[in-house]
UniProtKB/TrEMBL annotation, chain A:
This protein's record includes keyword Transferase: yes
Source organism (scientific name): Cepphus grylle
Gene Ontology biological-process annotations: GPI anchor biosynthetic process
Signal peptide range: none
Protein name per its UniProtKB record: PIGQ acetylglucosaminyltransferase
UniProtKB/TrEMBL annotation, chain B:
Name the UniProt record assigns to this protein: PIGH acetylglucosaminyltransferase
Protein's GO biological process: GPI anchor biosynthetic process
Pathway: Glycolipid biosynthesis; glycosylphosphatidylinositol-anchor biosynthesis
Phosphatidylinositol N-acetylglucosaminyltransferase subunit H conserved domain ranges (all copies): 88-157
Classification via InterPro entries: PIG-H, PIGH-H_dom
Encoding gene, per UniProt annotation: Pigh
Gene Ontology molecular function, alphabetical: transferase activity
Similarity comment: Belongs to the PIGH family.
GO (cellular component) term, any one: glycosylphosphatidylinositol-N-acetylglucosaminyltransferase (GPI-GnT) complex
Length: 576, 187
């Protein structure tokens, strides 16, 4: 079989020595992690390796020899290197030698056993040690779902990535350390660290504790107050602002918990939540600074009342139009006038209420606008709630129209059954035939006729107000979609994919380097980053998302029958 | 390294380049016809004439600037996401098969399939629009069922070479794939 040697590109200019790494026999491949230089004592090397093996649980061993000679190849050196093969017994013993500055190295193996003299082909694969160590290999989304056959099917590449990632401790010693072993690897020129990162790590522990304490206070207060008073708890559940605040509170609890992240997924989730909160608050502050400049709040409050007035006037015009002959249809005059006057009075009440509130609007807006500093999502939720409150009369009209229409439809269907001589059997939940008396039939038919001829009027009112209600629902839905987007988008993962694309790997890609005859095949292994779509899909944050409760057909059916519709369902809400 | 000319399914001339890097490593690249200056100028002129006609009707100069921006953005999007210059297949025995598509803007999109996942490379027939064409595809093994397939990966989708070119590619691939069946017996 072909022998594959994975060689770190940072060791290409290292001095002569022996190669240490991991031998994966099932794939006939050797992953080289570092080069140990002369002089060394074999016993100390073996001791060091067994210690590394104990800590990292990776079977690191001496795999072969590496000779980097600036001059012509020396015969004695090659014999010395072969003798090393007998001290550190490893099957097969790999010998790589580089002459001068030549790109083409010669690679050979001492035969495994004497009865296999055939020379096997060797492939030399260069890899960037630092990038492979930091990268996280993502399995394809469909195979990640099936968890059986994980162990044996674990791809060969993930074995290599695992080996390098787990051997972090091997890369902690650099050449300035005074140990008995001198290694060359990607960090041998000096271990990298950043002062800012270290300071932040130190500062994060007390910050987390403080945050946890504050959060426990806040959540305690919320829980005690909300459950006590019924109107307050009802209001709480209806306002989307409170739900968004609760969601963000949960996020803060996740970040400030003391437990360290167990694996990659948890770490990425914490980082995503943190960056999402940061961006949210930054955008909220930006919005706030824009709003409070040049007295924009005052302008907003000044335009709010005229807008509400305008909406009310438009509604009044609409009702006058309905009370006349809308679209050329002839309405039942009496019913028309009754419904029209009822709704007009309702609007009149609403307008008076708005005018009553008008002196306080500016102050309320001013204080409510301050809450935008909690985040852009909170500001958007407040906007959606304000729209809901301002269009409350449309909602009321819709409910009246729907209830009337629904009653009418039920009445009509029941009397239609009477017309045909049938009855709804509640016990058996089906339609049965029934013999009615003559006067029952007479009154039933009369009522049926009345209801039937009054149907167009009620249906028209219902149609108009349902359309208005749907318009408001669509506007609110769009705002919530935007809030959802900001909530669930994994900003940190996307920025990581943009700036450090090797950290999120979908796979690898090989590039064939220059070849020379009778030298091993040279390949360069690079990391193939994950596509943006898969990044978003893998690291999406879960939300209390609103999604349409009903399919289109059931929605249409409900509209036709006049049942009240609540198109958006929140996760965690009980079914009606 | 050798290069030969063939025809694609739609009649355009394509070039197949074969390189043997080593006994178990081969690279096969199919080069598609490049973007022609004629068609580019024709499309751009048509778009700008239409925009000028609209400008004469509406007297709004925004139409002209919008047309220029749309043409530029459309060209960049086309070069970066749609126009494939070269599709290549790199078969490394005992490592895997790598499929690369290079776009006209220089972008390269690569997929590497490990040898343990590859069941076989075959030529299939398919109905494409109004024709029946041949295409080369890689069959991926289902990890649970040794006889089953988990996925079919079609190759050379934008250049669509004809059967004669596909046979050459098929033969080259099979020579390397056969090695993995014979070698375990000898060691």
């Amino acid at each position: 079989m072909v022998l594959k040697v994975f060689f770190p590109s940072c060791c290409a200019s290292a001095e002569s020595g022996i190669l240490i790494g991991r031998w994966i026999s099932e794939q006939n491949s050797a992953v080289i992690l570092a080069v140990v230089h002369f002089p060394f004592i074999p016993v100390q090397v073996k001791q060091y390796l067994s210690e590394v093996q104990r800590v990292t649980k990776v079977s690191v061993s001496v795999l072969g020899s590496w000779s980097n000679s600036k001059q012509e190849k020396e015969e004695s050196l090659s014999e010395f290197l072969e003798d090393l093969g007998t001290i550190f017994s490893h099957e097969p013993w790999i010998q790589i030698s580089k002459e001068g500055d030549s790109k083409f190295w010669s690679c050979s193996t001492l035969p495994k056993n004497s009865n296999n003299p055939k020379e096997e082909e060797i492939i030399l694969v260069y890899y960037d040690q630092r990038k492979v160590m930091l990268s996280h290999l993502h399995p394809p989304l469909d195979t990640a779902a099936s968890t059986d056959h994980k162990a044996e099917d674990a791809s060969k590449l993930s074995a290599i990535f695992d080996t390098v990632a787990k051997s972090k401790i091997l890369f902690m010693t650099d050449r300035y350390d005074d140990g008995p072993i001198k290694l060359t690897h990607w960090q041998s020129d000096g271990v990298e660290a950043s002062i800012i990162v270290e300071l932040m790590k130190q500062a994060s522990v007390p910050a987390c504790m403080l945050l946890t304490f504050l959060l426990s206070l806040v959540s305690g207060v919320c829980r005690s107050w909300v459950l006590k008073f019924w109107p307050l708890s009802f209001l709480w559940s209806k306002l989307s602002t409170c739900e968004q605040l609760g969601h963000r509170l949960q996020h803060l609890q996740v970040i400030s918990s003391n437990k360290k992240a167990q694996n990659q997924t948890q770490l990425m989730r914490k980082a995503n939540i943190f960056v999402s909160l940061l961006i949210d608050v930054a955008l909220g502050m930006l919005l706030m600074s824009w709003l409070y400049r040049k007295n924009r709040i005052g302008h907003l409050a000044d335009t709010l009342i005229p807008v509400a007035d305008h909406v009310a006037e438009e509604l009044q015009d609409l009702l006058q139009w309905l009370m006349g002959a809308p679209a050329g249809l002839k309405m039942n005059r009496a019913l028309d006038q009754v419904l029209g006057r009822f709704f007009l009075y309702h609007i009149h009440l609403w307008i008076s209420y708005i005018h009553l509130m008008s002196p306080f609007i500016e102050m309320i807006l001013w204080y409510v606008g301050l809450s935008a500093c909690l985040g852009l999502t909170v500001a958007l939720c407040i906007l959606s709630d304000i729209i809901a409150l301002l269009t409350f009369h449309i909602y009321c009209f819709y409910v009246y129209g729907a209830r009337l229409y629904c009653l009418k439809i039920y009445g009509l269907s029941s009397l239609w059954r009477l017309f045909r001589g049938k009855k709804w059997n509640v016990l058996r939940q089906r339609v049965d035939s029934c013999s009615y008396d003559l006067d029952q039939l007479f009154i039933g038919t009369l009522l049926f006729t009345i209801l039937l001829f009054l149907l167009p009027t009620t249906a028209l009112y219902y149609l108009v107000f349902t359309l208005l209600r749907l318009l408001v629902v669509i506007v609110q839905g769009l705002i919530h979609l935007l809030v959802d987007l900001i909530d669930s988008l994994p900003f940190y993962s996307v920025i990581l994919r943009l700036c450090r694309s090797y950290r999120l790997a979908a796979g690898v890609k090989f590039r064939v380097l220059e070849q020379q005859d009778r030298k091993p095949l040279r390949l360069l292994m690079q990391i193939n980053p994950l596509s943006y779509g898969s990044v978003v899909q893998t690291y999406r944050l879960p939300t209390y998302s609103c999604y349409p409760k009903d399919s289109w057909t059931s929605l249409c059916k409900k509209l036709f029958l006049g049942e009240l519709i609540y198109p958006w369902k929140h996760k965690g809400e009980k079914q009606d | 390294m050798e290069e030969r000319w063939y025809r694609s399914a739609s009649g355009a001339r394509i070039a197949l380049r074969r390189r043997q890097h080593s006994a178990s490593c081969r690279e096969l690249a199919v080069r598609c016809p490049r973007l022609r200056l004629r068609s580019l100028s024709a499309t751009t002129s048509a778009a700008w004439l239409a925009a000028y006609g609209l400008f004469v009707l509406t007297e709004n100069s925004m139409v002209l600037s919008a047309a220029i921006i749309i043409t530029l953005v459309g060209l960049i999007v086309y070069l970066h996401f749609v126009k494939i210059d070269q599709e290549s297949l790199l078969v490394i025995g005992s490592l895997g098969i790598q499929v690369t598509s290079s776009y006209a803007s220089g972008k390269e999109s690569t997929t590497f399939i490990e040898m343990s996942q590859v069941k076989d490379v075959v030529i299939n027939e398919a109905i494409h629009m109004q024709k029946v064409i041949y295409y080369l595809c890689i069959l991926l093994q289902d990890p649970g069922d040794p006889q089953g397939l988990s996925e079919v990966v079609p190759l050379f989708q934008s250049s669509k070479p004809r059967l004669d070119c596909l046979i050459e590619v098929y033969k080259s691939c099979q020579e390397i794939l056969e090695q993995r069946k014979t070698v375990p017996q000898s060691s």
